[in-house]
Amino acid sequence: MKQLFAYWLLLCFCLSGTAKAQQITLTPAQLKALTPEWKGARSTDGRPQVPDALLQRLQNISIEEAWGILRNRGYHNQFEGDWMLLRPDQVMAGRVVTAQYMPLRPDMDQLIKDKGKSEGRIGGTNSWPIDVLQNGDVYVADSYGKIVDGTLIGDNLGNSIYAKSKKGVIFYGSVRDMEGLEEIDGFTAWVKGYDPSYIQQMMLTGINVPIRIGRATVLPGDAVLAKKGGVIFIPAHLLEEVVLSAEFIALRDQFGHQRLREGKYTPGEIDTQWTDTIKNDFLQWLDTQGDKLPMSREELDKFMKNRTW
Question: Which residues form the signal peptide (predicted)?
Fold first, then answer.
């Protein structure tokens, strides 16, 4: 029933504008209805506000671990690879702000611009998503893979993005002024291409609406992890589970590798269902890790109560 209600809201969004200008962004109430499984804090625009501490820990998790956990929960369409990276060795994690672009259609474009004017929005429409960014947000845009004349930002807008969010961008499209963007200390980008042209024959159709990034479906307020191998979008209500599960897997792997180097167990013993002897050894090993644990001991104990080996 909740899903049906969310779809109904999206239909209203898509059809709005018959009596007034096209709606640009979902309302806080609509965003809450779209993400009903998130029970925590929300930003003023209605997006899930996942904790900064979890985002910081997320940066230490591998794409493969996050991908596997999401697949086990039925989320098969959250990853996209094959990017051009501004800084290949930089990792980014943050809260998603979405924007959707389409090929220009003058009548719809005018509706959007009229609505933006009535809301007090200024500048080109490709600057409007930047105006809503907050600290810790990642600007994620679907510009349908357009490279030539599809450059959403250059170094001026890049500076504004980093000033507001202290993060970077993920564009299913292109950017310009790559050298200028590289000069913005801390700013990073995952894009599909670079071109010196200006944005033309494109229109903004929505801010903080559901979008498609390649083979991934992305909602406003998702947590995103971007690394050299690609980007993965994590539903807000699953972020804590993904982080704790991945951290636990990493601890298991660390223990197993150590015991294999020591020759205490064979590969066959470590790679199959652990015996009670190995489980007890692992629990004793955890007690020796102290502040090396990526999570609090309270979090770990609570997690292990519900964990099947």
Answer: 1-21
- Number of DSSP helices (H) and strands (E) in the chain, helices first: 12, 11
What phi and psi, each to the nearest 5 degrees, are found at residue 246? -65, -40
Q: Is 222 annotated as a binding residue?
A: no
Alpha carbons 113 and 109: distance in angstroms, whole number: 6
Q: State phi, psi for 231 to the nearest 5 degrees.
A: -125, 145
Give 123's DSSP letter.
Answer: S
What pLDDT sits at residue 302? 85
Query: What gap in Å lies between CA 152 and CA 172, rounded to an integer?
Result: 10
Dist CA 174 CA 159 (whole Å): 16
Residues 138, 94: contact at Cβ < 8 Å? yes
Q: Where are the alpha helices (DSSP H) in 263-296?
A: 267-271, 276-287
Q: What is the pLDDT of residue 305?
A: 83
Q: In this structure, how many other beta carbons lie within 10 angstroms of the beta carbon of residue 246?
A: 23
DSSP state, residue 38? -
Tell me: is residue 256 an annotated ligand-binding position: no
The whole-angstrom separation of Cα 119 and Cα 142 is 23
Give the model's confidence band at 307: pLDDT under 50 very low, under 70 low, under 90 confident, else very high: confident
Hey, what are 293's tokens? 């644990």
The first and second tokens of residue 308, run together, are: 């099947």
CATH 3.50.30.40-classified regions of the chain: 2-235
The whole-number average pLDDT for the span 253-263 is 97
Tokens representing 170? 């993920």
Q: List 101's β-bridge partners, or say none.
A: 204
Q: Is 156 annotated as a binding residue?
A: yes
CATH class of the domain at 2-235: alpha beta
Distance separating the N- and C-terminal Cα atoms of the chain: 34
Residue 78 is predicted with a pLDDT of: 98
142 marked ligand binding residue: no
User: Is residue 10 part of an annotated ligand binding site?
Assistant: no
**135 annotated binding-site participant:** no
